[in-house]
Amino acid sequence: MTTPTPNPAPDAIADAPADATPAATLAVVRAASARSEAQVVRDLLPFLKPFAGRISLALALVVAGKLANLVVPMLLKRLVDGLTVTPAQLVLALPVALLLAYGASRLSVTLFTELRQVVFARVMARVSRKVTLQVFRHLHALSLKFHLARRTGGVARDVERGGSAISDLLDWTLYTILPTILEVALVTAVLVWAYDWVFAAITLATLAAYVVFTFSITEWRTRFYRASVEADTHANERAVDSLLNYETVKYFGNEEHEARRYDENLVHLENAQVMARKTLAVLNLGQTSIVAIGVTAMMWRAAAGVVAGTMTIGDLVLVNAYLLQLSAPLNLLGMMYREVKAAFTNLERLFGLLDERQDVQDREGAIALHTVQPRVVFDRVRFGYDPRREILQDVSFEIPPGGTVAVVGHSGSGKSTLARLLYRFYDVDSGHIRIAANDGVLRDGIAHDIRDYTQASVRAAIAIVPQDTVLFNDTIYYNILYGRPSATRDEVEQAARAAHIHELIVSLPDGYQSEVGERGLKLSGGEKQRVAIARALLKNPAILIFDEATSALDSKSEKAIQAELDRIAVGRTTLTIAHRLSTVMGADEILVMDAGRIVERGSHAQLLAREGHYAQMWRLQQQARQVELAEQAEAAS
Hints:
Layout: H1 22-26, H2 37-48, H3 52-82, H4 93-141, H5 144-149, H6 152-194, H7 197-244, H8 246-251, H9 255-308, H10 313-354, E1 375-383, E2 392-399, E3 404-409, H11 415-422, E4 430-436, E5 448-449, H12 455-460, E6 462-465, H13 476-481, H14 489-498, H15 502-507, H16 525-539, E7 543-547, H17 555-569, E8 573-577, E9 589-594, E10 597-602, H18 604-610, H19 613-636
Parallel strand pairs: 3-8, 3-9, 6-7, 7-8
Antiparallel strand pairs: 1-2, 1-4, 4-5, 9-10
Helix pairs in contact: 3-4, 3-6, 3-10, 4-6, 4-10, 6-7, 6-10, 7-9, 7-10, 9-10, 14-16, 18-19
């Protein structure tokens, strides 16, 4: 994934000049993909192979259509020559037959063309669907590292443009450019066979000049298209990012700041589009001039033949008809080539997403994890998101089967990183995370490293309630059901009751069908957290992870839900990450982390007796709690 252009400081933002040079416009373009057009074709071929029969049939229909199109001017010539005889010589049956044949030929051209569309429509739609689906699956398979760095709007635009580019590429190359080349070859052969080589020479010279001019100008223009694609992607990234953070924008009154940043990208897009349109005018003028010269030369040659008596008026009509047939696709050739180049550019970006490496992959021979009450062991684990900064240093602890271990500590001590490693969003740098399956009984005498299990089976055994809950822009029912899509309505409601949110849901006008909005913004922080807890409960996991699960709740709600969390944790192997020490008092073992190390461990009572880090944190929180209660009592009075 390429790195977005850095955004300037607010006081450095200025309107870019509307007449910025092409070099200035191109300066914002990110590095182009190293993938060649041949590589794009090779990547696309496996998706086309299942449709070889349909593709062959469609090509046969295209050839049939071109042959029918070749016959039309011949019939027209015979009609004209036949009608130049005197009335006494006129045989009425001949024009009628030719007229019927002429009409049938023209109908055949359209018939074969439309049949080709019918046959090939499924190929274009299915291949586009399969490629975009594979990219979508690959994006979900990528590690958290990629998704933390991505720009959602830019990725979405790349996928959207790439999907439509597949249909464009197939349609333009297989059924427009190749048939045009075939038609030119057939017309040239007919002209040489029926007349002389001069007609063929004029046709080929015109075509050669046209192709050379078109390709050279289009190559020049392609860089402006690339610039517009890059600018469009940047603009979409900026817009989506700003809209997703709507509340933050409003909190700081930065609407105009966001508009200026968005407009920066729109200016680059505008300049690239203007240059693309200016160069298009140059392309169209040059193409028209070349075709006009070729047509004039052909008609001059044909008219001279009629005057000399070596050609009939029908021959003149035939040559003119062929020229008209060729001029239409030739006039489109520049657009064809441009569209093909644009399709390749978009497909480069789409397949470039498939090139993104999966940092976390299943090992060869990885086994599925089947467990009810597993034992989880962290053994001398070291890890850092950046090799230059280690987050966890020699962390070792064990969660017994069905037991609960709580991790506390200041922000940045590495607590949440433990959950991410257990969920295999990342792999450890050194050490091991082991899971002993089958109710804690060691399989083969040892606890298997988590990397020996498939990622899917490990994640299926774990449910996590994160600190920052983000919901889908759908109904409350869908968001709870997401924990286990096969669950019944009763099971969803039972999970909601366990999370103490059922009564709130049924009190809403639309009940469980109430929409939660983008990222769940229609719900309060506490309501979102309860939905997340219900979703985790519905999954019915063997391992539970609560990452600050009650952090968004008030004291009263926290007590009620904490009691439920303690109840549902019974019989499950549970890792609780918390800031409020009152929520972890009942844990089997409490780990106190500081700067990536475990500095204390023991039960609540043992840690208080040591008068260390934990005891100090406890006293501070108790003092804060006393102040809070005093303020509440004063407000009540």
